[in-house]
């Protein structure tokens, strides 16, 4: 199956802290459908928190998507609609895992459309990845659990390095 004949530029925003296989699935789908995908690693410089700093998240996402033509990774701060305007996105892409995701994302999509006339396209991740979340990956990794089967190889390696450095301290 091939994507639409008209190519569009889309932006997939998120914190991606860390990027997991559900995210990667949505990026791959967006790439197949639209061709030109900007993965916007969002951060708030006033609230430096999370497992990985923004540059590490950009590096991991770049490594995880290296096999995809037309996918670029950029870091952005501020609102997703501001980032979408900055990259010239025709649409924002959001992944859906659960009905709860739809409720939250629908409200955000309607607000973005109202404020900036930016439309949102939803892409459900594969059912076998619907349970994966960055929050759970972080928590399991922090307690020394195995998460390599939930994240791309570059992220798994970064999580392993992080765990090893924490054990040394």
Number of helices: 6
Number of DSSP E strands: 5
CATH H-level superfamily: HUPs
Helix content: 40-55%
Beta fraction? 15-25%
Main beta sheet, described?
Answer: 5 strands, parallel
Pattern of helices and strands: EHEHEHEHEHH
Placed side by side, the strands forming the largest sheet appear as 3-2-1-4-5
**Tertiary shape:** globular
CATH class: Alpha Beta
Name the average pLDDT: 91
The structural class is alpha/beta
Could you tell me how far the N terminus lies from the C terminus, measured between alpha carbons in angstroms? 51 Å
Into how many domains do the coordinates divide? Answer: 1
Question: What would CATH call the architecture?
Answer: 3-Layer(aba) Sandwich
| Rg computed from alpha carbons, rounded to a whole number of angstroms | 16 Å
CATH-defined topology:
Rossmann fold
Query: Which segments are poorly predicted (pLDDT under 50) over 5 or more consecutive residues?
Result: none
Structure description:
With 169 residues, this protein is an alpha/beta fold. It has one domain (8-134): Rossmann fold, CATH 3.40.50.620. It has six helices and five strands; from the N terminus they run βαβαβαβαβαα. The chain has helices at residues 21-34, 54-64, 80-87, 99-116, 134-142, 153-168, and strands at 8-14, 35-43, 71-77, 91-96, 119-124. Helix 2 packs antiparallel against helix 6. The model has no long low-confidence stretch (mean pLDDT 91).
């Amino acid at each position: 199956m091939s994507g639409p004949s008209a190519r569009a530029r889309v932006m997939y925003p998120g914190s991606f802290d860390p990027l997991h296989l559900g995210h990667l699935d949505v990026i791959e789908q967006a790439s197949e459908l639209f061709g030109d995908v900007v993965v916007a690693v969002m951060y708030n410089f006033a609230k430096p928190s999370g497992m990985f700093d923004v540059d590490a998240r950009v590096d991991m996402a770049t490594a995880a998507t290296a096999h995809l033509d037309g996918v670029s990774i950029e870091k952005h701060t501020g609102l997703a609609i501001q980032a979408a305007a900055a990259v010239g996105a025709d649409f924002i892409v959001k992944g859906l895992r659960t009905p709860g995701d739809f409720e939250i994302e629908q409200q955000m999509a309607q607000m973005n459309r109202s404020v900036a006339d930016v439309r949102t396209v939803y892409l459900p991740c594969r059912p076998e990845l619907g349970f994966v979340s960055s929050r759970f990956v972080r928590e399991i990794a922090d307690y020394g659990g195995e998460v390599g089967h939930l994240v791309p190889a570059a992220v798994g390696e970064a999580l392993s390095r992080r765990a090893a450095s924490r054990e040394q301290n």
